[in-house]
């Protein structure tokens, strides 16, 4: 049985503000495997945003030529936001690293929920987002997705003039 969720995350408006205020993102649990969500999120953010993206994974050296750092402490600058693709049991240690480097926010991807981590992060002054995909939220807030999740740029029932 799953424990009841009691923690309340930031509103859509606050998540939008967080993404607008963010300049650097560290993706913890980055992967070179194109089938992994972290790979797709990295490719999306790198190609559609002005964010500086840092990849973190102690087991790989690069992803498509982009360097991968073993830890958050090894990054050349402090990330504003740490986007996490790790197992549930790894989340407390990722939070410890996030606090230690001085990041302002921690974002746990879809399927990740850890109330103790959320409470500890907030006590340390971090903004916390859990169980949401940063790619989906970015696209939604920047006109790429309708609120219901549809890609508004792909299907259009209006006939174009001159066709």
UniProtKB/TrEMBL annotation:
InterPro entries: CoA-bd, NAD(P)-bd_dom_sf. It comes from the Bacteria. Residues 19-112 form the CoA-binding domain. SMART domains: CoA_binding. This is CoA-binding domain-containing protein. The lineage of its organism: Bacteria, Bacillati, Actinomycetota, Actinomycetes, Mycobacteriales.
């Amino acid at each position: 049985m799953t424990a009841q969720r009691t923690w309340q995350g930031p509103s859509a408006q606050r998540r939008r503000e967080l993404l607008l205020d963010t300049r650097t993102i560290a993706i913890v649990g980055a992967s070179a495997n194109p089938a992994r969500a972290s790979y797709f999120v990295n490719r999306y953010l790198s190609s559609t945003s002005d964010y500086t993206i840092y990849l973190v994974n102690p087991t790989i050296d690069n992803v498509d030529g982009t360097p991968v750092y073993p830890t958050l402490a090894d990054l050349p600058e402090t990330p504003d936001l740490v986007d996490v693709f790790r197992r549930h049991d790894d989340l407390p240690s990722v939070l410890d690293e996030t606090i230690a480097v001085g990041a302002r926010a921690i974002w746990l991807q879809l399927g990740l929920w850890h109330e103790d981590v959320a409470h500890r992060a907030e006590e340390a002054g971090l903004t916390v987002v859990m169980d949401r995909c940063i790619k989906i939220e970015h696209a939604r807030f920047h006109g790429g997705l309708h609120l219901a999740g549809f890609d508004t740029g792909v299907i259009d029932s209006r006939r174009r003039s001159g066709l």
